[in-house]
Amino acid sequence: MRAAIIHAPGDIRVEDRPEPQPIHPTDAVVRVSASCVCGSDLWPYRGVRPVDEPRPIGHEFVGRVTAVGDDVREVAVGDFVIAPWKNSCGACTNCRNGVLVACEHAAGWGWSDEHGHPVDGGQGEAVRVPNADGTLVSVPRFSGEGGESGVREPDEATLKSLLALSDVMGTGHHAAVCAGVGPGKSVVVVGDGAVGLSAVLAAKRLGAERIVAMSRHEDRAALAREFGATDVVPERGADGAARVRELLDGRLADCVLECVGTKESMEQALRSTRPGGALGFVGVPAGGAEIPAGVLFAKNITVSGGAASTRLYIPELLEDVLAGTIDPGRVFDTVLPLEETAEAYRAMDERRSIKVMLLP
Amino acid sequence: MRAAIIHAPGDIRVEDRPEPQPIHPTDAVVRVSASCVCGSDLWPYRGVRPVDEPRPIGHEFVGRVTAVGDDVREVAVGDFVIAPWKNSCGACTNCRNGVLVACEHAAGWGWSDEHGHPVDGGQGEAVRVPNADGTLVSVPRFSGEGGESGVREPDEATLKSLLALSDVMGTGHHAAVCAGVGPGKSVVVVGDGAVGLSAVLAAKRLGAERIVAMSRHEDRAALAREFGATDVVPERGADGAARVRELLDGRLADCVLECVGTKESMEQALRSTRPGGALGFVGVPAGGAEIPAGVLFAKNITVSGGAASTRLYIPELLEDVLAGTIDPGRVFDTVLPLEETAEAYRAMDERRSIKVMLLP
After folding, report:
1. Which residues of A touch B99 (CB under 8 A)?
2. Å from B51 to nearest chain A CA?
3. What's the Cα-to-Cα distance from A341 to each of A57, A126, A205, A336, A357, rounded to whole Å?
4. How far apart are CA A310 and CA A222, in angstroms?
5. Which residues of A touch B274 (CB under 8 A)?
6. Sign of the dihedral defined by the CA atoms of residues B259, B34, B134, B200, in that order
7. DSSP letter at A307?
8. Which residues, other chains included, contact B265 with Cβ-Cβ below 8 Å and sequence gap of 6+?
């Protein structure tokens, strides 16, 4: 099979790899229908994180199960499945506490499982999935055995939205849930990448009354408005917070969703939160970002969030995707064949694309 | 009247001051029955915060109302009242949002009101109370007109517990509420000062199953146990967290209450919190304490708390004090006359006393 390998910063190649097979009885193998590039994939690509040796890459994919180990119960051959960005067993204490991202038996896509066996990356034609029962979510509408005839395949728009549930939509939703977004709430979203845009959609879905998207890019601001943003603020820093206050009738926001991960974006988020408000943060902290305790103390701001256990959110979000009430797949503004994965990275690195879907 | 004045670090004097009178129609005057010294009073005393000019000091007191302005409705002359550590109007947006500590019209005890008129400190014989209706809480059992005859006065133990509701007990309770303490929860309390001990009592009152007090002082550990701590851990750092994990059957705590405010105590708190757990923090952040976003992100820890709007908690806690089910006043291990306020500061500065009550 073909799969993307990162050899060094800036060096992504699609190469031949062994066809994956189940190794453990809890494994499944998924034939990938679509995968994509994440903002966090750009870290090794940009050299922000070291690339010690060539390894498979990618952690978001959907596809069809082609093989299962003897102990797999929840998914079957023929199932169309969504693989969350994080593998999890579903049974350890952290999983039972709802913090699947801290699973004690997790395997890492593109890295290895707890037994030391290598695990495929998502950007490829097929993936061995450890902890299949705890990780994969089947989509009955598109599941079935007997080859492709007789089984309904998702159209491209649906495929995009299903793929978005692997990570970005669930991550944006996590920010909104952690910040307590709900009916009547005023919300500020810091970050207009795929996660920030998803957070806008999540806030709208949860009934927020006002949603202020902080964006300086016309195309992203336009999608934010389509996703439910009532206002767009291009200003940053104190000016940005002043504009938020002005828009919200002299008050700062009840809920702020931080979807970037830099010191500046966290400061922007804190500046935009009202006393007693909540900050849901899902931006992967870059460069040792710290939160000033004094600001939290004085304003009684609650900070919640972190890496999203998107597996938990897939069932409810999937229902809305299939009902057509949300279309998170619209964050994919580019579609490329898997063979052009290197170009997908370039397009995202150069900000020519919000998010690229890869089709094997 | 007599009142404590801080002249410079280490220099507290009890001096004659003008007898306070209502200035604004929303003012009351309270004759102080008891006041006390707060850990945060030690900041200017130790020179951690500058003392630019002599000023009254102290922000925790209980006493009897001797005069009210024309617009005061909720308290009357003769009422025995608890004054929370923070003055608040009760009517602005932040107050209505439950964040009284961010009141837009607050006066500062020992500083001034929003009109620029000086406000007495709590460590004195009498205090002018701006925003009387939004600030003071009456205790009907000890209220009444007609001088001291015919009015029941609280005994010393009760007086201590009522005084504890001004700040430390409500602050410990805030930490517990913010961390979601409840039945079945495991709790770690970092800090064994008056607030930490109050947090233990609050956690017990809220039904926590396990309460681990981190303390190295035998007398404080003993009081922590009496307040409901099931375990005491003297170790710090990684050893302390390992001990917590060992005590809690291999798991870190659901809820951690940070009651110190230093970088070390915050680290200890984060180390002690399980993935997906909650950290309630009420330690006043000292020296630019920062919370590492990466740790919150990886462990999905929620951080909540800050300065406690103790005014909100007084009614429910008062009920338990009067019913005799909690005795937060036990944190006062020393009682001194107001004239010996300087010695009270020394005793707390030198850690000879957990907390000192001052009687005018």
Report:
1. 275-276, 299-300
2. 21
3. 11, 15, 32, 7, 9
4. 26
5. 94, 97
6. positive
7. S
8. B190, B191, B258, B259, B283
Q: What digits encode the pLDDT tens for the residues A222-238? A: 999 999 999 999 999 99
As given in the structure block, the two tokens for residue B296 are: 């919150």
Regions of chain B where pLDDT drops below 50: none
Chain-chain contact of B275 with A251 (C-beta, under 8 angstroms)? no
Interatomic CA distance for residues B39 and B348, integer angstroms: 8
- pLDDT score recorded for residue A285: 85
Residues 6+ apart with CB under 8 A from B343: B336
Interface test mutation site (partner A, options B105, B186, B297, max chain A beta carbons within 10 A) = B297
Selecting from A97, A301, A303 the residue whose C-beta is nearest the C-beta of B296 gives A303
Smallest CA–CA distance, residue B49 to chain A, in Å, is 15
Residue contact B304–A309, C-beta within 8 A: no
- Are the beta carbons of A163 and A356 closer than 8 angstroms? no
Rounded Cα distance between B176 and B165, Å, is: 15
From the CA of A62, how many Å to the nearest CA of chain B? 25
The percent of chain A in helix, strand and coil, each rounded to the nearest 5, is 35, 25, 40
pLDDT at position B49 = 86
What is the per-residue burial (b if ≥16 Cβ within 10 Å, else e) of B273-283? bbbbbbbbbbb
In the prediction, which pLDDT does B146 show? 58
Q: Pick from B300, B301, B310, B311 the residue to mutate for testing the A interface (most A CBs within 10 Å).
A: B300
Contact B290 A292 (CB under 8 A): yes
Rounded to whole angstroms, what are the CA distances from A209 to A229, A290, B43?
10, 30, 43
Q: Diameter of chain A by CA atoms?
A: 62
Question: E strands of chain B, at which residues?
Answer: 2-8, 11-16, 28-36, 55-56, 61-68, 80-83, 126-129, 137-138, 186-190, 210-214, 231-233, 253-258, 273-281, 290-292, 302-305, 334-337, 356-359
Q: Which two tokens stand for residue B232?
A: 């005491």
Within chain B, how many helices (H) and strands (E) appear?
12, 17
Q: Do A302 and B178 touch (CB under 8 A)?
A: yes
pLDDT of residue B76: 97
Record: contact B306-A298, CB cut-off 8 A: yes
Strands B273-281 and B253-258: parallel
- In terms of C-beta distances under 8 Å and separation of at least 24 residues, what long-range contacts does A205-209 make, across chains too? A205/A173, A205/A320, A205/A325, A205/A326, A206/A176, A206/A177, A206/A181, A206/A182, A207/A181, A207/A182, A207/A183, A208/A176, A208/A181, A208/A182, A208/A183, A208/A255, A209/A183, A209/A184, A209/A185
Q: Tell me which residues of chain A have a pLDDT lower than 50.
A: none
Separation between Cα atoms, residue A170 and residue A222, nearest integer Å: 21
Q: Is the overall model pTM greater than 0.90, yes or no?
A: yes
pLDDT for B147: 53
Q: Please count the residues of chain B.
A: 360
Q: Which of B101, B97, B98, B79 is nearest to B88 (CA)?
A: B101
Residue A48 pLDDT:
86
Q: Which domains does chain B have, with CATH numbers?
A: 2-167+310-359 (3.90.180.10), 168-305 (3.40.50.720)
Query: Could you tell me if residue A149 is left (phi over 0), alpha (psi between -120 and 50 degrees) or otherwise beta?
Result: beta
Amino acid occupying residue A264: E
What is the Cα–Cα distance from A243 to A240, expressed in whole angstroms?
Answer: 5
Q: Are B300 and A101 an interchain contact pair (Cβ–Cβ within 8 Å)?
A: yes
Distance CA A313, CA A140 (A): 17
Q: Report ipTM (2 d.p.).
A: 0.92
How far from the centroid of its chain's Cα atoms is residue B17's Cα?
26
Interface touch B293/A285, C-beta < 8 Å: yes
* Cα–Cα distance, B45 to A2 (Å, whole number): 70
Cα–Cα distance measured from residue A344 to residue A195, given in angstroms and rounded to the nearest whole number: 18
Chain A's closest residue to B178, CA to CA, is: A302
